[in-house]
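Ticket reopened. Same input as before:
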Amino acid sequence: MRAVVLHSHGGPEVLTIEQTPDPDFGPDEVLVNVAATALNRADLLQRMGAYPDPRGRVPEIPGLEFAGTVAAVGERVTMWRPGDRVMGIEAGGAHAERIATHERQLLAVPASLSLAEAAAVPEVFLTAWDALVLQGGLTSGRWALVHAGASGVGTASIQIAKAIGARIAVTCSAGKAAVCRDLGADLVFERSPHDWLAEATATVPGGFDVVLDVIGGDEVDRNLQSVAPRGTIVQVGLMGGGRTPVNVGLLLAKRCSWVGTTLRTRPIEEKVAVTRRFAAEMLPLFDTGALRPVIDSTFPFDRIADAHRHMEANANAGKIVVTVQP
Amino acid sequence: MRAVVLHSHGGPEVLTIEQTPDPDFGPDEVLVNVAATALNRADLLQRMGAYPDPRGRVPEIPGLEFAGTVAAVGERVTMWRPGDRVMGIEAGGAHAERIATHERQLLAVPASLSLAEAAAVPEVFLTAWDALVLQGGLTSGRWALVHAGASGVGTASIQIAKAIGARIAVTCSAGKAAVCRDLGADLVFERSPHDWLAEATATVPGGFDVVLDVIGGDEVDRNLQSVAPRGTIVQVGLMGGGRTPVNVGLLLAKRCSWVGTTLRTRPIEEKVAVTRRFAAEMLPLFDTGALRPVIDSTFPFDRIADAHRHMEANANAGKIVVTVQP
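Engineering reply: fixed in the latest deploy. New output:
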């Protein structure tokens, strides 16, 4: 098969596509013909050597999500047959023509979605739903605040919040507010030159029940100031840097929680549990129309380096899809 | 009745005992003749003007816990009768001869305890149990780390952890290790000149499932380094200062939670819920002998300023009890 193989780490120029053997698959696993994949911030970090595949596989093939058709199944597989349209998340290996994964980590592609559209679903919708609902406890009536509202996770968050009857405010870079509003965000704070905290405090004086932050850095302190008493800050990324001063007194006074979370490093049983619950609670909402992937752009496999450059320029609103094979 | 009334804030010299009217009590409330009360760090902060009673009552009478006998009951009270031995927590007003509280916030004094011993129970055992078990999820087999192991909360934590089959390590100031070991602590890290983090990492390499911290400040970073993946840091105080740098990357990588908690500011329904559950799960263990209050010293009511000075000198191991009336 053809795959992106990282022989070294660095800029987009290290991304080379070459022939490698098909992955092995065990008796509970499914081999998937990848029709399309999508890009995530983690791919950029991995390319730079800062976020290795926790399984340490050789050769190092990046890529966290995929959609395609079942090529072959292990002898104990009961859920899927060759030809089924599937999508999913893996800890790596999705920027390739074939990937192997446990059958219970796969999701059926909703009938309303093409495989290219489906590739834009798993990572951001699972991340946003897990962070907002499972980790943060978001329910109907409550307020969420999500940073980077026009990002993949942001656009998924807006739709999920509205689909479950919650209210949502987002921050976004200048020029991306319309995308967020069109998706149904109740409040949009354009980050620069606006001070979102003052606006947020004025419009939602009770604070946000759940804050989903992919940024860290300077936002940490503002998150603590804007979260509601007894609320939860869910930290799912660190675009703005690691070590930062925190007002511990505010954490105490508000009796709030600050939770770090990632999908990639979870053990198989946790990944399967969150995937199956997502299948029950979220997947039907793609066919009802409540949820839809927001695709910024689509790149052919051979131009995956350009896809990286596009994300690095922070130029996207929604997902960057990469088509792998017809 | 006689009560400590704060007319101004400052050192122990502002503590004056004077005659004030008995507190009013509503139809669901109980008036208690306070036999004994005990001191908490919060009393020192309140005396200095830094931690006011959230109910803002006038005159300002400090004191968070008490044991005594029921003096009178409101017309709808069903759980208690005059003469019953009771103990409990309130947001203030316990450094007085009488206090009024909701009947469902009261606990029966275990038969094995005198009223002076009982006064040393509510605040630290409820705080430690709520923090370790309800907020932190401590269970049998798991490891807890508790700072200030010889403090009231520390000595309660050690006993609670052992009583439920958990394992516990504590830090303590030099000279207080024996108290902690005698109570059953599995590991004791004398803080100075020892570096507890290096010792903790060497002896419990998997990390602590629950870290209970009353200190904050410099400990915050070490807490994050010593907590287990998926573990919980429960912040119940801030002796070491408020604003502190935090390694957010570690929070993410470990997928851990950092939860702020206080009992004092909770609404009545939460206070009642935690009190009733404590009555069911912890109170029986005083009569079985698994739990017992650790009393450092007992001061008569008229010497409550000396009790403050004793706590301020960090000279106590266990609770400082103040006897109010015979």
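Residues 124-260 of chain B form a domain with the Rossmann fold fold (CATH 3.40.50.720). The mean pLDDT of chain B is 94. Please confirm and we'll close it.
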